[in-house]
Amino acid sequence: MKTPKEILNAIDPRKLEANIPSVKNLYKWVISTCKYKSFIAGDSRVLWVCGDPDAGRKMVLWSIVRGLSPAILDSEPKLLSFSMCGTGEHEAQSTISVLKTLIYLVLEYQPQLGRYLIQKCNSTDIEEFSDSHDVYALSMLLYDIIRDETFKPTIFLVEGIDEINFEHEDPSSFILLIETTMNLSQNIKWLLSGSTESFGRFSKSSNLRIAEDECIDIDAAYEEMQTTLRDYYIPLKADQIANYWGIEEESRNEITRLLEKASSGSFLRVDLACQAIQRENPWHASGQVGGIGL
Fold first, then answer.
1. Which of 8, 95, 113, 178 has CB atoms 3.0–4.6 Å from 100's, for a disulfide?
2. What is the pLDDT of residues 219-246, one digit of tens each?
3. CA 81 to CA 92: how far, in whole Å?
4. What is 4-210's CATH number?
5. pLDDT digit string, tens, across residues 23-56
C-alpha cells in the first residue's frame, strides 16, 4: 500500500535542513519583535516576512522552522507545515507542489487525518497526485482535513511566495485558499515570505488584508544577517565545496577567502560563486570566481 508521501508525490522539505547552517542568532532577533510575538502567542493569524532573497530571507525562515520545533517551545507546541520555494532541485514550482508538501507534513504529524486522503483517492479515482490540474482536488482535501475536530493548531509556512509559478492558476487563487482555510478553522495560521513588491500586492488584496503591523522587514536585522553569512553560511559552503572536490585544509581556507570577497554581503552572490567553483576544476577556482564578475 502506498504511503501518503507516495500518493501525494510530495517533497519533504525537512531533508533540506541538513544544508542549513546555525541560525540561532537570527531566531533571537525574530522572537524579539512584537509582531512575531503577537503572531505566535496573540490573536494575529497572518505574518509576512518581507525582504529580498539575496539579503538572507530564506535563512530567517529556516530560523523560524527550527525555532518552532516542539522540542524548543516552552508553551503548547503549534505544529508546523512548511514549503520552501526556490531551493534548486527541490524547488516548489507551482501551487500544487506547495499544497502537496503542506498536506503531506500535516498527515505526518497528524496521521489520524490520513483517512481523508484515502477517501479523496476513492471518490476521484486518483491513485497519485502528479497532474498539474489536481489543485482543486487537493484544495478540497485540505479543507476536509482542517475541518476535522481532531485537527490540531498548525502554522502553514510558505517561503518565497513570489517564486511560485502560477502557470495553471490565477495568483489570487492562493490568496483565496489562505482566506478559506482561516475561515474554516481557528486552528490555522499562515506565515508567508516574499519581496517588498509582493507584500504590496498581497496587502492590497481585499480578501486577505495583511496589515503593516503583520509584516517583519528583514532589513532591520542587517547585523544578524551579516554575522550568519560570515560566521556560518560561508564556512559551511566552503566545506561543501572542499568535500565535493576532496581538497585539503589550505585550499578550504582559500575558498573561504574567495567566497568572503565575492559575497559583498549577499547570500545569493555566495551561492553563485559556489556554483562557479563547482563547475570548474578546483585548481582554476580562483580565476573562475573572479571571472564571473562578483
1. 8
2. 999 999 999 999 999 999 888 888 877 8
3. 14
4. 3.40.50
5. 889 999 999 999 999 999 888 899 999 988 788 8
Burial of 251 (0-12, 13-18, 19+ CB in 10 A): middle
pTM of the model: 0.85
Helices 267-279 & 249-263 angle (0-180, nearest 10): 130
74: amino acid identity, one letter: D
Q: Measured in Å, how far apart are the chain's first and last C-alpha atoms?
A: 51
Beta carbons within 10 angstroms of residue 58's beta carbon: 23
- Do the Cβ atoms of 184 and 191 come closer than 8 Å? no
Within the chain, strands assigned E span: 46-50, 79-84, 154-159, 188-194, 215-217
Cell output for 161:
511566495
User: What is the Cα–Cα distance from 193 to 60, expressed in whole angstroms?
Assistant: 10
Cell numbers found for residue 137? 482536488
What is each CA distance from 55 to 122, 140, 164, 272, in whole angstroms? 46, 36, 19, 14
Tell me the domain boundaries of the chain: 4-210, 223-291
In terms of residues, how long is the chain? Answer: 294
Q: Are 208 and 190 in contact (CB under 8 A)?
A: no
Residue 32: how many other CB atoms lie within 10 Å: 10
